[in-house]
Prior knowledge:
By secondary structure, chain A is mainly alpha-helical. Chain A has 2 domains: 4-66, Winged helix-like DNA-binding domain superfamily/Winged helix DNA-binding domain (Arc Repressor Mutant, subunit A); 74-128. Helix content of chain A is 50%, strand content 6%. The first copy, chain A, contains 6 helices and 2 strands; from the N terminus they run αααββααα. Chain A has helices at 4-19, 27-33, 38-50, 75-82, 109-125, 130-138; strands spanning 54-57, 63-66. Chain A has a two-stranded antiparallel ribbon. In chain A, strand 1 and strand 2 form a beta hairpin. In chain A, helix 1 (4-19) crosses helix 3 (38-50), helix 1 (4-19) packs across helix 6 (130-138) and helix 2 crosses helix 3 (38-50). Chain A is elongated. Chain A starts with a helix and ends with a helix. Chains A and B meet through helix 1, helix 5 and helix 6 of A and helix 1, helix 5 and helix 6 of B. Chain B binds a DNA duplex through residues 3-5, 24, 26-28, 37-40, 42-43, 45-46, 56-64.
Amino acid sequence: MLSMKTQYAFKALMYLAQKDTGEPVLIAEIAEKKTIPIKFLENILLELKKAGILDSKKGKGGGYFFNQRPSDVRLAKVIRLIEGPIALLPCVSLNFYQKCKNCDERHCGLSNVLKEVRDATLQILESKTVADIAMLGVV
Amino acid sequence: MLSMKTQYAFKALMYLAQKDTGEPVLIAEIAEKKTIPIKFLENILLELKKAGILDSKKGKGGGYFFNQRPSDVRLAKVIRLIEGPIALLPCVSLNFYQKCKNCDERHCGLSNVLKEVRDATLQILESKTVADIAMLGVV
DNA sequence: ATACTGCGTTTTCATTGAAAGCATAATTCA
DNA sequence: TGAATTATGCTTTCAATGAAAACGCAGTAT
């Protein structure tokens, strides 16, 4: 299951994408509209900024806005950034690989199956973007 | 990512399935061969027993053994039992459904995508069994 | 200059994961 | 019957993580 943090990240991104105007949006506004604890949200938005997905402006008229186009932000990227590995085991992860003790991966039936799961999952999460999930939200 | 507990559960099940002989196997033997903390393993095996997957016998010559055939134990069942929901969000889970606040699921782009992920995942985890992953392990 | 707004650092609190300890119940075998 | 063997039940512990709250600093517009 995705953590609260990741869920909040998606809600914030969807909100920004739906507002559509390129104008900066206040953290406080996102927090209120999406009922996210404001200090927690600050953290999340900062991570998204450091990853190059969002950018921000301080002072009056400041706030957060997209640095990349929402249609360029793949869901897999957001999940890896906020949540961590997508795979179900470390020894199956592409981006966070770690060898698992006590199992020879070449012949481990479990990791073979979980690789299939990973690939099926990634095929979806790498093809869908923030723009996709924001559009459906508006319907 | 799957918890240690779930990984241990799979290791134990694979070990039992590979031994093949219907004879009871000591908790201590599984714990040693698979380097699993013994008291933790006791708990796990007990859960598997309560779920009807394994059975046990006390006293000399006792231990754990399969109650169902390994080829009847789907991976999805084990994960749901030990780990919990397979879906990435509660509002997308079949077996552990919970409504999520602040989002109308019918029109939520995120939950729509995560439903696709869930279905792709389940298609694999519902079709593979303990027997499958145990066989590959022996190759 | 000052109000506004994001940034940084630290602390807290509750929950969960991952065990360890110890006593009890069932079974076998001598 | 009794002792050894093995699983079961119940409680406690310990560390890590998730989810925040507190407080103050830094940049920007007017």
